[in-house]
Amino acid sequence: MRILVVEDSQVVSRVMRHLLTQELCCEVDVASDMASAKELLAHNEYFVAITDLNLPDAQEGEIVKFVLEKQIPCIVLTGSWDAEQRARLLQLGIVDYVFKENRFSYEYTAKLVKRLRRNQSVKVLVADDSVVSRKFIRSLLEQHLFQVIEADDGISALETLNDNPDITLLITDYNMPRLDGFGLIIKVRERLGREELAIIGLSSDSDESLSARFIKNGANDFLQKPFVHEEFHCRVLTTLDSLDMVTKLWEQANLDYLTNVFNRRYFFNFYQEKLTEVAQKQGSLSLALLDIDFFKKVNDTYGHDVGDEVLIEFASRLKQSFSQHFTVARIGGEEFVVGFKGLHIEKAYALIDRFRMQLEITPIETSKGALTITVSTGVTEFGHDETVDELLKRADTGLYEAKSAGRNLVSIAES
Ligand SMILES: Nc1nc2c(ncn2[C@@H]2O[C@H](COP(=O)(O)OP(=O)(O)OP(=O)(O)O)[C@@H](O)[C@H]2O)c(=O)[nH]1
């Protein structure tokens, strides 16, 4: 990623270069006047340009128009606070107008660029029956590089959310035909928690109770129409930042810190729900308990760090092989489980045995060289009314048999 800083003050450009490389690990080019900015823009692709308005060879902010014409997002970083100019430039489509006040202004600018990078992969659904309002919100969101999808009422918003599980933010109007904003939020929240989808409610209605009602029904925030451009962006950014924080907390609680697969806590808490679902629907579910063979020897011979490298690669291979359809978790030091929801034991056995054979012939690259690792596994199938604990205990008897029979084996524990 490459960023252009157009700034005649060496102190400012040095600070910005330092903050940007620290925050984003990116390439930063600096131009101290309009002519050198033009030269750089002619030869390079930029993710964003951060520009001063008053340059030695262009003192009226001409650089902004030049950058925007090249379809490059532009952040104005200026020492002159001019409200009229600010409004005009925001109207023109700049990302933000930042006043060089103190070091926080520079930190804010670097963080803004980081958010722009994140926004590129954030999908936002805008539900509003007014085409004008929808297009306006789309243009604001696109200035900040979000991916935008539109829906013209509550029902089509619900359908779009079903078809696009990767939508992160829903911005919904209150008054809409077929299903209004409240109805939409209530239906959405039956299925998606606050850690999965953020919602901002909108309304031009003068009813003062609307904002509280939106939030009580499950919205994260509310905006009264008409709103100013900057307030809209602040609300969106704050909502997404808190969603990121909730996601981070959820990951810390449920993912294994070393291997990034689900942890023991997740498996015990959430897998019970899957078992109940399978029991109710009389479906099938098999479980594999895997334990790396002679793992202590890896630690003793090559050190704990190499042991960690092996665990990380082993988990990554498990994830690659199974996590698209099944649940992979690390439940102990070198013990992992794969929950095969929907599979009978014969199929689960075949998949795990294929994984075992592949592992045996594909050494793991570590900092101390390539190591050949094998794994022993116990596989079992869910009976009727069992807990995760009971299922695991039975898989463990299979694992014990596999170890006793010489390791590098898969053994079935019948239910
Ligand atoms: N590097 C590393 N080692 C771990 C971690 N957690 C547990 N271990 C080690 O895993 C090893 C497990 O060893 P054992 O239970 O004796 O089993 P084993 O050597 O794999 O032998 P078998 O299971 O009988 O084949 C111990 O040396 C633990 O210290 C971890 O997070 N990182």
From TrEMBL:
Positions of modified residues (4-aspartylphosphate): D52, D173
The Response regulatory domain, residue ranges: 2-115, 123-240
Domain of life: Bacteria
Record bears the keyword Metal-binding: no
One Gene Ontology term of the molecular function aspect: diguanylate cyclase activity
Protein's UniProt keywords contain Phosphoprotein: yes
EC number: 2.7.7.65
CDD domains, alphabetized: GGDEF (cd01949), REC_1_GGDEF (cd19921)
InterPro entries: CheY-like_superfamily, Diguanylate_Cyclase, GGDEF_dom, Nucleotide_cyclase, Rev_trsase/Diguanyl_cyclase, Sig_transdc_resp-reg_receiver
Record's protein name: diguanylate cyclase
Protein source organism: Shewanella halifaxensis (strain HAW-EB4)
